[in-house]
């Protein structure tokens, strides 16, 4: 029994070697007619790689002859069957140009377009080939709207468009993931406008809601109410189109907090109110370096050094007043709870700080007060102290 198995394997191996030897001899042969005959045999038997190599050799020999049309079509189709789609598309298009009146021109046109379809990459990669495939399939449908291949061509276009939708949606979604919320809002708006019937519309609206929520919850007071109202509008929009949305529980939780924030806004001090509290906000002092008339500075005391000493002391008073007031205002907006919000900058504190940074420098305000006779000074008698 063992001897019989060994004999069978040896026989099959010998047959394979003989077959390969015959094929190799045929490739090296100058017998074009025999190559053509065997190429069709291999093609009909589904041995497309062997057939392809033979067709490649004989195509130049038969160019301009009656057999050329058949050979070039089989040559293109052998590439298609072996999934060499780039070469298949090229050869099919070459066939269509060479034999526009052929009975196989419609099939060749369709398979050329289908070859481009198979070259479309996964959605995460560049989609230039996808756009190209859609264009080729659309051209085919325009030329042969009643073709037997029309339904399949339409199906392929739908699949390719869905791939483009997914690509665009994932980009918009990625902006939210990396916390670029303004870009996420804009990208989702563009996505919905570009693909109004997309199956990703519900999730895209939800991602926009989340981005609006993150911005509003960490917003400066001057813009917070407006942004909270935008969240409410987005919430209403989602429920209008998707009343049983998969994201309903999370939406309801977040909109409840939004409503609480809106109620609290009426009793919360805003940065605009803070700005009215500082008595230095109306100062007309110079914001940049300025040259002063020495005589004007010296005039009230008739002594430049005494005048500068008074101005310096007043500058220190102003600086201490502003510093104290700034610390008080920053403390009002300090967060003392452990929450997700701690990953964000405290934008209220930043706005308050920027306001005080825009004030004139203390020494400039002191000079301005001195020149406008707003500083009171008196000499003390050290001997009586």
Describe the model.
This protein is 70% helix and 0% strand. With 385 residues, the chain is mostly helical. About 6% of the residues have low confidence. It is elongated. Helix 3 runs antiparallel to helix 4, helix 10 packs parallel to helix 12 and helix 15 packs antiparallel against helix 16. It contains 17 helices and no strands. Among the domains are: 97 residues, Alpha Horseshoe (Serine Threonine Protein Phosphatase 5, Tetratricopeptide repeat); 102 residues, no CATH class. The longest helix has 29 residues.
Could you give the topology of this structure?
Blueprint: H1 2-28, H2 32-44, H3 48-62, H4 68-81, H5 85-98, H6 105-118, H7 128-143, H8 150-177, H9 181-194, H10 201-217, H11 221-241, H12 248-265, H13 271-275, H14 294-298, H15 304-332, H16 347-357, H17 362-371
Helix pairs in contact: 2-3, 3-4, 4-5, 5-6, 6-7, 7-8, 8-9, 8-10, 9-10, 10-11, 10-12, 11-12, 15-16, 15-17
Question: Portion of residues in helices?
Answer: over 70%
Identify the quaternary structure here. single chain
Helix/sheet category: mainly alpha
- Overall geometry comes to elongated
Give start-end ranges of low-pLDDT stretches: 9-18, 272-277, 337-343
| Mean pLDDT metric | 84
Please state roughly what percent of the residues sit in beta strands, choosing from under 5%, 5-15%, 15-25%, 25-35%, 35-45% or over 45%.
under 5%
Number of helices: 17
Compute the separation of the termini in Å.
130 Å
Compute the number of strand runs.
0
**Main β-sheet: number of strands, strand sense, barrel status?**
none
From the alpha carbons, calculate the radius of gyration and give it in angstroms.
41 Å
Write the H/E string, N to C.
HHHHHHHHHHHHHHHHH
């Amino acid at each position: 029994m063992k001897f019989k198995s060994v004999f069978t394997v040896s026989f099959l191996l010998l047959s394979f070697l003989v077959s390969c030897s015959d094929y190799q001899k045929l490739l090296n042969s100058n017998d074009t007619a025999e190559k053509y005959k065997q190429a069709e045999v291999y093609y009909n038997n589904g041995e497309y790689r062997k057939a392809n190599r033979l067709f490649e050799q004989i195509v130049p020999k038969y160019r301009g002859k009656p057999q050329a049309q058949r050979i070039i079509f089989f040559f293109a189709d052998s590439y298609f069957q072996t999934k060499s789609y780039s070469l298949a598309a090229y050869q099919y298009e070459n066939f269509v140009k060479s034999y526009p009146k052929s009975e196989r021109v419609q099939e060749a046109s369709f398979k050329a377009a289908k070859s481009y379809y198979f070259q479309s990459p996964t959605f995460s990669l560049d989609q230039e080939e996808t756009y190209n495939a859609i264009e080729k399939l659309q051209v085919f449908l325009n030329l042969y709207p009643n073709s037997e291949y029309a339904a399949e061509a339409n199906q392929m276009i739908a699949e390719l468009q869905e791939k483009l939708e997914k690509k665009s949606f994932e980009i918009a979604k990625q902006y939210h993931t990396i916390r670029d919320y303004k870009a996420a809002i804009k990208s989702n708006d563009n996505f919905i406008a570009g693909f109004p019937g997309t199956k990703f519309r519900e999730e895209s609206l939800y991602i926009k809601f989340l981005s609006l929520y993150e911005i509003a919850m960490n917003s400066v007071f001057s813009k917070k109410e407006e942004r909270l109202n935008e969240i409410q509008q987005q919430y209403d929009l989602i429920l209008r189109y998707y009343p049983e949305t998969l994201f309903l529980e999370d939406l309801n939780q977040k909109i409840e907090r939004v409503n609480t924030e809106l109620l609290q806004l009426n009793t919360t001090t805003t940065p605009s109110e803070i700005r009215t509290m500082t008595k230095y906000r109306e100062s007309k002092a110079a914001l940049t370096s300025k040259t002063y008339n020495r005589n004007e500075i010296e005039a009230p005391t008739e002594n430049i050094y005494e005048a500068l000493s008074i101005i310096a002391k007043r500058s220190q008073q102003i600086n201490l007043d502003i510093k104290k007031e700034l610390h008080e205002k920053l403390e009002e907006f300090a967060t003392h709870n452990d929450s997700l919000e701690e990953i964000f900058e405290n934008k209220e504190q930043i706005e308050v700080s920027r306001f005080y940074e825009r004030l004139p420098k203390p020494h400039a305000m002191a000079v301005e007060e001195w020149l406008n006779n707003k500083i009171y000074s008196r000499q003390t008698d050290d001997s009586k102290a």
